[in-house]
Task: structure prediction
Amino acid sequence: DKMLRKSGGIGATGLRAVRSVRAVQAGARRSYTAPIKDMRFLRDEVFDFPGHYASLKFCNGDQATPDMVDMVIDENAKFAENVLAPLNDVADAEGCTYIDQNTIQTPKGFKEAYSKWNEGGWFGMTLPEQYGGQGLPPSLYMFVGEMLATANFTWTMFPGLSQGAFNTIALHASPELKDKFLPPLVSGEWTGTMCLTEPHCGSDLAQVSTKATPLGDGSYSISGTKIFISCGEHDMVPNIVHCVLARLPDAPPGIKGISLFLVPKIQVADDLTLASSFNGCNIGRIEDKLGCHGSPTCEINFENAVGFLIGEPNKGMRQMFTFINTSRLGTAMMGVSLAELSWQNSLWYAKDRRAMRSLSGAKEPEKAADLLMVHPSVRRMLLTQKAITEGGRSMLYECAVLHDKMIEARLSDKPKLEQEIDDRMGFLTPILKGFLTEVGTEVANIGVQVYGGHGYIKSNKQEQILRDVRISTVWEGTTQIQALDLLGRKVLLQKMKPINEHCSQVAKFAWGVLTGGKGKRVQKHAMVVLYKTLEWLVLSYRIGYGAAKDKDFVGAASVEYLMYSGYVSLAYHWLKMEVAAEKSLAEGGQLEPGFYAAKIETSHFYFENVLPRTRGLIPVMLAPLDSLMAMPSASFSFDHNTK
Result:
């Protein structure tokens, strides 16, 4: 057990020494610092992960002791800060290199970093013991994943995609395929991908045309072209397991005729030795992209590649959604991670850079100018970054708890409970993916603005964050697709059941705060959350009424509805954090009093400066449909494209 052996002999004194060294290192350089205190606050004082882990009997929760969790976080924080972060701008400048149709070279240092991280057994720590993992609660990987993603998102994509491949194969493949392909994925010896879209179809997977022809021995010949395949070929491991959507010869048209196949880069013998030749998964090109240069985005030409059916024929989209939902939560984490990085850079710069004098009088008259920090407009940008980043992290942690509970229900053979939790996560996922990537992109954009002209210069690293995070609102379904999923599938098609249940839970918490005598300000915030939750429900019903007359009303309202949902959800999480901070400040928490006071002030800022954005979303959500749909397409321009 490699990861647990690494914890031997560390203890509380050793952990304090590690943190002391990290603090000195952070002060000596302008780079990523893992937000350990904020993570610990959420983990221990907002969500009570120690109590949560103690309740998990089938996920080895008893092994996830506070000391062990601290060890996992501190070891990966050191790796993120000292190994991955220095490679981030190197990877951006160097990118990936196409050598030939079976060889893509990753940026300098990526392969070595992967080998070093893999030696610790970190990837498999939350995966099942039967396949070589350690079976610990899945939320541990979220703690680790956020730090790695912030330090170097494109490197993190390689193991991140393997997580989705593992989940998909483990849930849907035959025992034979699981036994053969899962152990090398769990050990990190191989990686995985998902191969969905094609040149002609984009997100409309009903148009998938890749063919799967039976070979008569239980395998299939896969032929077709897939595009936008992240990490579709690389030099970090010898084999890659592709999850590929394709059509059988007798498949019905559209989504109902798509099947899912496992296609290895190199064929694998029963004893897990690799064949001497490639399996027809040939790289046509890698894309020249705006950002995320450290990960290769591939066009893969499957040319009679041998693959194996995963699950039932013509049920491929249902099975692939296991991978897609894993990736959507990973993309939501990307929004928070790169927001964190932009926020850290902005704060350091604002505390160093001097420009002009404070409007209320010079704060440091002996200096040439005052710090950026004193200017109200700069403070608003910084506090917006802080409120979105820390609130977004709390939203991710809520889903991490739910995911643990869902896996626990699955392992304890409680399918009804598992489905209930899965449905709840299904409701939250489009909010997290759609909202957190949109506001994460906003935070990155603010980061450039804080730097001014220097933010536009590559050496200051802010513009890379903006380029990298921009794909997050497109990946795994655009914001518009997430919005339709939320409003159309999760709210209206399910006859308001998910939104009613969710709002009931939020309102119950806010009511408890309102009637619990927690102080005037926090009670005021609780009242606002109650009001916004009720308004959220009313808006859902009003849109439903409009959609009954014209279904286009759903599409017209959906993005604003998603953003409204996100802002109200963020308010709920800031209320939770404010309550926890008030309690720790009064009773004495594990962190310094200033930390809790800052949480309370940030909550106040969010309610007064960010949440009011919801007021502007409502009239757009409910705008008359003819204001959007009446203009003929030929009238959009009379100078060009006048068809």
Observations:
- Residues 41 and 223 are 51 Å apart (CA to CA).
- The two ends are 65 Å apart (CA to CA).
